[in-house]
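Researcher: I'd like a structural prediction for the single chain below. Treat it as a standalone chain; there are no partners to consider.
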Amino acid sequence: MYTIKEFQNIINQEITKSNIGREPFSLYHPINYTLDSGGKRIRPVLVLMACNLFSDNVNEAILPAIGVEIFHNFTLLHDDIMDNADIRRGKATVHKKWNENTAILSGDAMFIKAYEFFLNCQSPNFREILKVFNQTAMEVCEGQQYDMEFEGKNIVTEEEYLRMIELKTSVLLAGALKIGALIGGANTQDADLLYQFGRNIGLAFQLQDDFLDVYGNFEVFGKQIGGDIVANKKTFLTTKAMQIADKETLNKLINTLQNTSLERDEKVNSVTSIYNDLNIKEIVQDKITTLTNKALELLAKVDVHPQKKQELENLANLLIDRVN
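Model: Treating it as a single chain, here is the predicted structure.
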């Protein structure tokens, strides 16, 4: 069995070796710039870890894992354009370093390259693997569409928000696990259990992101606290607060979030104060714990020796307990 660190090293080495590109190099330079910017490589690691549960030979899963990572970075490239983001992983975003047209076209090329890495997979389950990848890719787009639509809504329900992040974030973690399991030779039941494990961990992962944006430590979190509040971005904290607030508090929350004339600190402190009055911090932490426990219950049902699942359990806890 491999460790998480060993899998991360395998992925990083393979990405370095791939060095995607040919003329016109201006199309491919932003792709390598994006892939070289690092990140935790969570999704490709999940592909390899799931494969390793059922097979000691993970070589067949390496290229599809790279395909998953390329697809993930493609979505970030286009997300940054839609959000007009300046920074990604401490570096200028592609559309800021070059321009929007370059980011769009390079992103499109990344999507095609992701499929190219999958085509080298020799698994007898190849058709099912590609079906999972296609479904996942489409659902990520659906989640992004919901996210954009939510920008124009004053109130988003908890159910709507959870469905959005399930599509935008969770399904890619879930899909990565199922793809890896199928490559490793898992049966349908175990592959589906891992998918649902990933789905719940993905939800908890995003809720932890929402939580850290308000209650994280600036020195550790690595970016300014309250960015979602300043941007009037819908998060689990916002939707839950709007669900349980009385009419007066709800109006105050909506008006504060929409007030563009407030100073940053004043806006963040005002909204955080409302969250504190409604015990939102504890509610979010309880929800994260519930989702994590559900995920671990599903993982426990996967029909392999518990020792083989330890690294996957460690990764799940690492994702949820992180502070950045």
